[in-house]
């Protein structure tokens, strides 16, 4: 036998242990370095893939925005009434002024689509009456490159145009008459705030550009709107829609990190858009540090495991170690009945005590895991049932709103203005329901929403009902959303809906000392003492189990949660004398209190619009 091996066998156990630990650590360390290298390379690749995926997602959102604004431009420029206005093709002067003063669709689109920053129609006519939307195309305008291009090509195109010292992405839409003549240019610019909304959840650096790299939105100070990104491929293939990673060291963007760009040509019209996503180098550094930390932890665990294996190897001749080993095997096999305690005060005894504690903990964990599994299965069943119910009751409200808008336009085109007005009011009412949030709204906004509801009901009941609204409170007074309309709806449903004639609802809002008092009165049939007591009980206990008076209960609960128990809802009624429901609110409102309310308030606010 070789002398080194003999010396190793004859050396002390402590030296053997050190040698075995070193022998175990060296290959593990080599493997760890190799793993770390591959892990860093994988992270870099994943960062590029993630940036490309993120760029594709933002490209889809940008494409939707471009499509929406383009459709608006096509609908406006192709509208027969709009062309008649621009071309002065009205039969009478009264018809011209009637459309000009009342029926302009521009303001409707402007107010309905948050994507739009401004709409300007440039006309070169001396006899036209100009306003904020219609502007005279003087020499400065007609000499602009975008105006000349629109007049020459007679096709819409996306341009970057300076407006109020801002470079805005603008759809340049030529206005073509029915005879093919050029009438003017309509510019629809996209709001920078809209780009912020669709990108605010993105944590990467990003740039939006159009054409040959003209930046129209950026969060990089070195590339503001109006600057140029020189990484656009030139010439650009027609109809391109692709994504790639920019690895060129000459690119000015690569100094910020890993760059991915996604292109699309909107409807193959030559309007090329680019979306740049930059994963910061700081991200890679943080990832590398995390990988190194993981590597060190793995090495530490491997060293500990090596020491434990060494101890087991050297203890095969020890009865105490063998006894402990047998007990551990029993526990690992599921036999938690340990033998009697071994005597002593050394490490073996401590390990045995730890083994007993571990077995006890394992028994508790097994019991807890079994109970948790039962709860998990029950939760999954309940979740599936809830998702099914949600799916069964789901409807796309925006689709319904757009359908109502289509119905309104058809009614208007058929000269049925009364139906068109009713559909428009219903659309506004539904849009307000869709836009309800957890924050505060102005009293003016809440009254306008309630008035829309009353107008719809007036159209339904005709001369059977009337209403009045008196308000001495400042219209900018901040109020919780949807607390007046449910009271009015309750008055219709339980007060005057059955009335044949002379139904009346009165809304009175006034200051009363340190409070604001809102009274909603009807001259309906009133309530019996039994029904009144039942309603007061539900208000006190916040009881919605029966499905009745949910609106009143939710309004009362929200007011108390937001303002305090001293405010809320009260009822005064008598059979044959109508009903008056009074809301009391503080005169001075702390708008920041909403942020400190529990999350259940948000749930209540989201549910009340369905009642």
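^ Assign residues to that structure.
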């Amino acid at each position: 036998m070789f002398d080194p091996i003999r010396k190793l066998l004859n050396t002390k156990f402590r030296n053997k242990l050190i040698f075995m630990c070193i022998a175990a650590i060296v290959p593990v360390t080599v493997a760890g370095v190799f793993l770390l290298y591959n892990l860093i390379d994988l992270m870099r690749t994943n960062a590029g893939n993630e940036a490309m995926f993120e760029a594709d997602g933002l490209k889809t959102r940008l494409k939707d925005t471009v499509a929406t604004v383009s459709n608006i431009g096509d609908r406006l420029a192709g509208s027969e009434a709009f062309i008649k206005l621009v071309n002065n093709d009205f039969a009478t002067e009264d018809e011209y002024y009637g459309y000009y003063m009342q029926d302009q669709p521009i303001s409707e689109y402007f107010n309905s689509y948050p994507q739009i920053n401004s709409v300007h129609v440039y006309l070169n006519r001396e006899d036209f009456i100009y306003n904020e939307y219609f502007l005279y195309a003087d020499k400065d305008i007609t000499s602009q490159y975008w105006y000349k291009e629109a007049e020459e090509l007679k096709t819409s195109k996306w341009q970057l145009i300076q407006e109020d010292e801002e470079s805005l992405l603008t759809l340049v839409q030529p206005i073509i008459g029915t005879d093919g003549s050029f009438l003017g240019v309509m510019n629809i610019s996209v709001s920078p705030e809209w780009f912020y909304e669709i990108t605010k959840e993105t944590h990467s650096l990003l740039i939006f550009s159009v054409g040959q790299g003209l930046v129209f939105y950026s969060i990089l100070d070195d590339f503001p709107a109006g600057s140029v990104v020189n990484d656009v491929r030139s010439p650009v293939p027609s109809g391109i829609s692709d994504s790639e990673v920019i690895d060129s060291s000459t690119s000015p963007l690569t100094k910020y990190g890993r760059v991915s760009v996604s292109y699309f040509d909107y409807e193959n019209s030559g309007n090329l858009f680019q979306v740049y996503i930059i994963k910061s180098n700081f991200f890679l550094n943080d990832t590398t540090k995390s990988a190194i930390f993981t590597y060190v932890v793995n090495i530490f665990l491997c060293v500990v495991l090596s020491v434990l294996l060494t101890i087991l190897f050297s203890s095969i001749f020890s009865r105490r170690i063998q006894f402990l080993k047998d007990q551990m095997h029993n526990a690992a096999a599921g036999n938690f009945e340990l033998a009697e305690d071994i005597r002593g005060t050394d490490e073996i005894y401590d390990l045995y005590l730890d083994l007993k504690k571990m077995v006890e903990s394992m028994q508790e964990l097994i019991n807890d895991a079994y109970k948790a599994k039962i709860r998990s299965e029950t939760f999954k069943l309940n979740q599936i049932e809830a998702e099914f119910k949600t799916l069964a009751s789901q409807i796309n409200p925006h689709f319904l709103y757009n359908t109502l808008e289509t119905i309104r336009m058809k009614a208007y085109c058929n000269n049925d203005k009364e139906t068109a007005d009713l559909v428009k009011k219903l659309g506004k009412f539904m849009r307000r329901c869709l836009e309800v949030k957890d924050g505060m709204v102005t009293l003016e906004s809440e009254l306008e929403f309630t008035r829309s509801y009353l107008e719809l009901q007036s159209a339904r009941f005709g001369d059977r009902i009337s209403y009045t609204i008196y308000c001495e409170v400042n219209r900018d007074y901040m109020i919780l959303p949807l607390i007046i309309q449910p009271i009015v709806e309750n008055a219709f449903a339980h007060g005057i809906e059955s009335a044949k004639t002379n139904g009346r609802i009165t809304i009175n809002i006034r200051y009363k000392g340190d409070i604001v008092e809102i009274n909603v009165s009807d001259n309906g049939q009133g309530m019996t003492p039994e029904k009144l007591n039942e309603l007061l009980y539900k208000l006190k206990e916040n009881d919605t189990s029966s499905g009745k008076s949910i609106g009143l209960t939710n309004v009362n609960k929200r007011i108390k949660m937001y303002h305090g128990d001293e405010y809320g809802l009260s009822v005064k009624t008598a059979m044959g004398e109508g009903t008056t429901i009074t809301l009391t609110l503080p005169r001075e409102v702390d708008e920041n209190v909403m942020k400190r309310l529990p999350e259940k308030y948000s749930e209540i606010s989201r549910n009340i619009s369905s009642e």
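Residues 13-77 form the longest helix (65 residues).
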